[in-house]
From TrEMBL:
Protein name as catalogued: EF-hand domain-containing protein
Keywords: Calcium
PANTHER family, per database record: F-BOX DOMAIN-CONTAINING PROTEIN-RELATED (PTHR24114:SF2), LEUCINE RICH REPEAT FAMILY PROTEIN (PTHR24114)
Family matches, as InterPro entries: EF-hand-dom_pair (IPR011992), EF_Hand_1_Ca_BS (IPR018247), EF_hand_dom (IPR002048), LRR-containing (IPR052394), LRR_dom_sf (IPR032675)
Listed Low complexity bias regions: 1-15, 42-59
EF-hand domain span: 1253-1288
Length: 1326
């Protein structure tokens, strides 16, 4: 069978072996993708539109449209309705971990009373987690329980309002069908992969020569050693010995089906007698001996001895001469097939012949003896003494006429004469097809004639010049040109030679069009500061269409060269196998090769990657010397040196990316700098012809096309945007290549490091389906944990898919050990992403969160630009990210915007994300009853950690809107500032009445907390547009948003009263204060004219009569993006207790204890001053300082009695007179009314908290507070007791109210004063 026929047969076997399973798998996948459940997940936008229509009909904006769609799609999957019914008990709450626990409890013989008790016992026994780790896992279960209870309440209210339809019964049937379909598809995929893997290994196993049968070999050796001249025991020559071995040939009895099913005789194949009998035509067509007598007997009685002797005479003579020569040379004969006369092929591979042994064997070569093959490989003892005569003998026309294979590999002692003899033989052998000169070092001047002889030979098909010294000399280019001139070569091995960049580049340009297999192992010369030179060769393969196998073992192929491979072989029609063994690919290089393997446009079926787990496994940054391509997020700033093959391939791939997105080059590329001037490349024969020199800097972006593709996605549908974006941008492996892709995974079983690199390569760019993940886990049970932690980000983000993905964990312990690494992605809420993030980019799930945040940032930037919103970012780059750092360094010191940053895969990325989403104009908040129920639920979960409570709140935050009073109530539940701030930030953009934001900002007593909140949320976002009174500002003018705040303050002061800006100062960069004697420049009202350096400090005050509410509202809409519709009457004017001094509070406490409201106190004080008496006269609606002093004396207020009484009263008066006119009007007096409201509200909140915690009787609360039973509480005891019971509000206010006797203690009688603030019971509806 010829090579071509054998290859075609192999391809047919491969096609037949993989056709049926692959077809079945593709049909199963089509059924999975086209199922109703998957269509609902993909068509999220359609659901959103339906939900938004329902919301508009309901005239409520309580839930965003995207959130409604999300719940509509997945509300039944978050609870125990899927598989949670297994082992169902009285614990009705559900979640991923909770359902795991329930399933495990159902198998236990003596299950504990509750899930928490069972989980605690399992954790204690396993000892896998200790201390904080165990508490964290228990916290996960508590979080899921709290989340389930909160979600149940929210969903129930939504159903009551008609927003959600009841879950139909057939949905449970569909869910069971989906699970069954997933398992069946996993098995189908496993079958297809195993079949493909077996077929590939079968067809690509190394071809070994058929072994000589044992009986036949024994017969041949017996014939050789019994030649009559030797005795095998002592090898002594015998006189007069008679050879009788061939007098009667031996035959085997056989049943011949081809000849009428008759029994016949067949000579043992391969024996000398059989060959001679066949040549002499003494056998019949059936292999039987000639029956001359015709009596039907076999074997015949005898054969003519003389005929046999004549036939065997040449071999006998050759053997005799050989044996005589061995005796002469005193060497032991070698019973090789050639020596015994059974073949014309001298195969002595690895026999370690000496010169004497080879010279003895030459006696078998007659002048008319045509040698078919000469294989002296690995005979390192041979020298020119024997090789030259042998090669000269073979060069005779008759001897080399049939020579087809010549192998001298490893004959390292061959000298100059032998080299030229090889060259002569190569030129003389007309039918030579294979030449192997591996590890024979040729001189520089010997290589050129050799290459010329090979290049002009028309029969050579397989040439190996590995380790011959080719390369890195002055004649290398000429040698390569001569070598590749041969258009008949099929296989070429140039391994273990050293080639530089220029030589590899030349090889790529002149590579033969007929070459099918090329090996260049260990050939890449090392040049400091440059990439692997083999990339030059690879770049030249782009125009090659014949190469089928390529070997690049140990050529320093890293992710850069791998990208070149992906680029040039992307459409290769013939290449099927690449050997990348021992190259530092890392995850980035592996990613390029897996993408190449998964494309249908090429013929690649396999690549070897043994030992390729080392190398760069993370995306490096430009400052560290490279640019990295991301298939999912190719947009970035690129600085390319076009003299490097890697950068040229990177540019070509970007052209292909623009082509894939159907973008014109002008839209995709923003050219910044080029030397020399750059013109976009043209495409010839399917290849982008990029320049090979020059430097170019540009920004690449496909956002324009992505935005066009996202036209059906609502602006506030962030989850839908991410799903659609990943569907558009993530790499999708072709269905026909899936078996090959996962056969690679099967090949790596047992090699942990290689498996990790494989998974890391898939996780970042590939869009994986659930059956793929299920197969990865089931095929490698020992790697389930790492597989899930790495591949979980590739699972679709809907709740159904994630729940099913968790079924891949075979045991409960696998889940809770992996949960910590997966938590960031599991809890990520794309619909309300506002919050603080500290992400380890080396963790696949946390990298996925960072990737999603960056994508959301760009999406919101597009939306804001489309809506013509102001840029309120810190760096004037329209980014929603703030305070971003990587490796502890400010990210914006390296790039202008995160949009220009290629997200690396290492170290810590920390940031604050602030969404520009705002509640719609008609949004409605949760009912007060439901919000209070949620808070009570959260309070009653006393064993739950505060951080787990925040996680639960964050998980439901996208479903609800709240009011300012709800926010105020929530922050009072957290003791630690970090927890309070996190809860505040989470719900900041969910508040519908932001015009009353001061109601909750006053709950932050510390100015440091407010500064941190401004820094996290943004100075403009957190700006008190409607109530800026008494707000203090410290603004660093180098930042865009803080400079904008300064401009807004000046602009507002110009519209209200310019003197409203108080206590202002400007500190320049050197730290020197500018007194600003001329006041704050009015030009700052124009943002463009505001200074860009220095720190500006001030405080804003405003008298009620100077307020311009309409202008404040305009500012809130322009800069704060507030959509709510409100009037001045809707604004609850407020003042915080921490905004005023202690004297003002003392006065307020005095008024509260004696008057019903501040107006009553004002009228008692208001009046003229009697001359000489100091008393009050009739009221005139205003208070002067003298009237104020006299009025306080008249009403018996002695709070300020002392040496500095007048100064203290004057300070209070100035506070009440913010306009500075010298009198206090009744309108200005309302500042005390605002304080009064805050004071009373603080007390009411405290009383409400007591009722939540201890019931309706204050006596129970007093018993808990007065734990020592003394009957009194001092101020220190009060603060300690309040903190102990879990209240974190303004306790000082309550103490001041209750301490009516001013003795510094609170008694039970005084405590009962709180009965006045008992909340009124709401009328129950019938």
């Amino acid at each position: 069978m010829t090579e071509a026929v054998a290859e075609n047969a192999a391809e047919n076997v491969e096609a037949q072996g993989t056709r049926r399973p692959s077809s079945a798998f593709e049909n199963e996948m089509d059924e999975w993708d086209n199922s109703l459940e998957r269509q609902q997940v993909r068509s999220r936008s359609m659901l959103q539109k339906q939900s938004s229509l329902k919301l508009s009909r309901a005239s409520t904006g309580k839930l965003s449209r995207a959130s409604t769609a999300r719940l509509t799609t997945s509300k039944s999957w978050g609870r125990a309705s899927t598989l949670g019914w297994l082992g169902q008990d009285d614990d009705t709450t559900s979640g991923i971990l909770a359902d795991f626990v329930k399933r495990e409890r159902s198998k236990a013989k003596n299950p504990e009373a509750t899930s928490q008790q069972y989980l605690e016992r399992v954790l204690t026994r396993s000892k896998a987690l200790q201390g904080k780790g165990m508490k964290k896992v228990m916290g996960v279960l508590q979080y899921e329980q709290l989340y389930a209870m909160m979600m149940a309440s929210v969903v129930q209210e939504c159903k009551d309002r008609g927003l959600f339809a009841r879950t139909p019964a057939n949905s449970f049937k569909q869910q069971c069908k989906t699970i069954h379909q997933l398992k069946r598809l996993t098995l189908t995929l496993s079958t297809a992969v195993l079949n493909w893997h077996f077929t590939f290994r079968l067809l690509n196993s190394p071809v070994r020569p058929p072994l000589e049968p044992k009986v036949e070999k024994l017969t041949r050796l017996s014939e050789f050693w019994s030649e009559g001249l030797w005795i095998r025991n002592d090898l002594r020559l015998l006189e007069g010995a008679r050879d009788v071995s061939d007098e009667r040939p031996r035959y085997d009895l056989c049943f011949d089906l081809q000849h009428q099913g008759r029994w016949g005789v067949r000579k043992r194949a391969g024996t000398l007698t059989h060959q001679q009998h066949e040549k002499a035509k003494l056998l019949t067509a059936g292999g039987r001996p000639e029956d001359g007598a015709g009596d039907g007997r076999f074997p015949p009685k005898e054969l003519e001895p003389i005929a046999t002797a004549q036939l065997l005479a040449p071999a006998r003579r050759g053997r005799k001469l050989y044996l005589d020569k061995c005796r002469e040379k005193q060497v032991i004969p070698s019973p090789l097939l050639f020596m015994t006369g059974h073949t014309h092929d001298l195969k002595a591979n690895g026999q370690l012949f000496t010169d004497a042994e080879l010279l003895a064997a030459m006696t078998l070569l007659r002048d008319d003896f045509a040698v078919h093959e000469l294989d002296l490989a690995e005979n390192g003892l041979l020298t020119d003494r024997s090789l030259v005569p042998l090669l000269e003998k073979l060069s005779l026309e008759a001897v080399c006429a049939e020579l087809q294979r010549l192998s001298l590999a490893g004959c390292r002692q061959m000298g100059r004469s032998g080299i030229f003899a090889v060259i002569q033989l190569t030129a003389q052998a007309p039918k030579l097809r294979a030449l192997n000169l591996t590890n024979i070092h040729f001189s520089t001047h010997g290589l050129l004639p050799l290459c010329q002889a090979i290049g002009s030979h028309k029969s050579l098909r397989d040439v190996s010049l590995a380790g011959t010294g080719l390369g890195n000399n002055s004649l290398t280019l000429r040698c390569l040109a001569s070598l590749f001139k041969n258009n008949f070569l099929r296989k070429l091995d140039l391994s273990w030679n050293r080639f530089n960049h220029e030589e590899f580049a030349e090889m790529g340009r002149i590579i033969s069009g007929s070459l099918e297999e090329l090996k260049v192992d260990y050939c890449a010369a090392y040049v400091v500061g440059r990439d692997s030179p083999v990339a030059e060769l690879l770049e030249g393969l782009g125009s090659n269409t014949y190469l089928k196998k390529l070997s690049l073992i140990a050529n320093r192929v890293d992710f850069r060269t791998a990208l070149v491979i992906e680029d040039v072989l992307d459409m290769h029609p013939a290449l099927k196998d690449i050997d990348m063994t021992d190259n530092p690919l890392g995850a980035l290089g592996m990613r390029s090769l897996l993408r190449l393997l998964s494309r249908a446009q090429n013929a690649l079926k396999h690549f070897r990657s043994d030992g390729c787990y080392q190398g760069i496994t993370a995306m490096m940054e430009e400052g560290q010397g490279c640019q990295v391509y991301s298939f999912t997020n190719p947009g970035s700033r690129y600085v390319l040196d076009l003299s490097r093959p890697y950068h040229r391939s990177l540019l070509r791939i970007l052209y292909k990316t623009a082509e894939r997105y159907k973008l014109t080059l002008d839209k995709a590329f923003e050219l910044i700098e080029a030397d020399p001037p750059y013109q976009h490349a043209s495409k010839q024969k399917g290849i982008w012809q990029v320049p090979s020199a020059g430097r170019v800097v540009f920004n690449f972006s496909v956002e324009a096309q992505i935005q066009a593709s996202l036209s059906g996605v609502d602006d506030d549908d962030y989850l839908g945007f991410l799903d659609t974006h990943f569907e558009l941008t993530r790499f999708k492996a072709d269905r026909k290549k899936i078996p090959a892709l996962f056969a690679k995974w099967l090949e790596l079983l047992g090699r942990e490091e290689d498996q990790h690199v494989y998974l890391a390569a898939l996780a970042k760019d590939f869009n994986m389906s659930l059956p793929y993940l299920s197969y990865l886990c089931s095929s490698a049970p020992g790697s389930v944990r790492h597989t899930m932690m790495t591949m979980f980000p590739t699972v679709p983000s809907d709740t159904q898919s994630r729940y099913l993905a968790m079924l891949c964990f075979p045991r409960l312990s696998d889940f809770y050990v992996c949960y910590g690494a997966m938590e960031a992605l599991l809890l990520f809420n794309a619909q309300n992403a506002t919050g603080h993030y500290k992400l380890d980019l080396g963790n696949s799930c946390e990298f996925a969160v960072a990737q999603r945040l960056i994508l959301l940032d760009r999406w919101e930037a597009v939306v804001n630009k489309r809506r013509a919103r102001c840029d309120v970012s810190a760096s004037a780059n329209r980014s929603q990210l703030r305070n971003e750092t990587h490796q502890g360094r400010d990210l914006l010191l390296r790039v202008k915007s995160v949009a220009e940053w290629s997200l690396p895969e290492y170290d810590i990325f920390e940031l604050d994300y602030v969404s520009s989403y705002r509640p719609p104009a008609k949004a409605q908040a949760l009912s007060d009853e439901l919000w209070e129920s949620l808070m009570v639920t959260m309070y009653n979960c006393k064993d739950t950690r505060p951080e787990d409570k925040i996680k639960a709140l964050r998980s439901i935050s996208h479903l609800i809107f709240i009011k300012c009073m709800h926010m105020r109530q929530m922050v009072g539940y957290f003791q630690e500032a970090e927890h309070r701030e996190e809860a505040f930030v989470t719900f900041f953009n969910r508040v519908i009445d932001m015009h009353n934001a001061k109601q909750f900002t006053v709950r932050f007593d510390s100015e440091e907390e407010l500064i941190r909140l401004r820094s996290r949320l943004g100075y403009v976002t957190f700006f008190p547009f409607l109530q800026p009174e008494n707000a203090k500002f410290v603004l660093n003018l180098k930042y865009n948003d803080q400079r904008m705040c300064a401009s807004i303050l000046v602009d507002l002061a110009l519209h209200e009263k310019y003197g409203n800006i108080r206590e202002y100062t400007l500190i320049n960069e050197e730290g020197n204060a500018d007194p600003m004697t001329m006041g704050v420049p009015r030009s700052w009202a124009d943002f463009a004219k505001a200074p860009t350096t220095g720190t500006f400090k001030c405080r804003y005050v405003c008298a009620p009569e100077d307020r311009q509410v309409d202008y404040r509202k305009k500012l809130a809409q322009s800069y704060g993006f507030i959509n709510s519709i409100f009037s001045e009457a809707d604004v609850a004017w407020w003042t915080g207790l921490n905004e005023v001094g202690s004297d003002v509070l003392d006065l307020l406490e005095f008024f509260i204890s004696r008057y019903n409201n501040v107006n009553e106190a004002f009228h008692h004080i208001d009046g003229g001053v009697k001359e000489g008496e100091g008393g009050n006269t009739t009221s005139n609606g205003e208070l002067t300082l003298r009237e104020f002093e006299a009025g306080l004396r008249d009403i018996g207020c002695h709070k300020f009695k002392g040496a500095n009484e007048k100064e203290r009263i004057g300070a209070v008066f100035r506070y009440l007179d913010p306009g500075g006119e010298g009198n206090v009007s009744l309108q200005e007096w309302q500042i005390l009314g605002q304080l009064w409201k805050e004071f009373v509200l603080s007390i009411q909140e405290f009383v409400q908290f007591l009722f939540f915690a201890f019931g309706d009787e204050l006596e129970f609360a007093w018993d808990e507070l007065d734990d020592d039973g003394s009957g009194e509480l001092s101020e220190d005891e009060w603060f300690s007791a309040v903190k102990r019971i879990g209240y974190f509000g303004p306790a000082r206010v309550v103490f001041a109210l209750l301490d009516g006797s001013d003795d510094g203690n609170i008694s039970w009688d005084e405590f009962q004063e709180l009965e006045k603030y008992r909340p009124k019971k709401k009328e129950q509806q019938g």
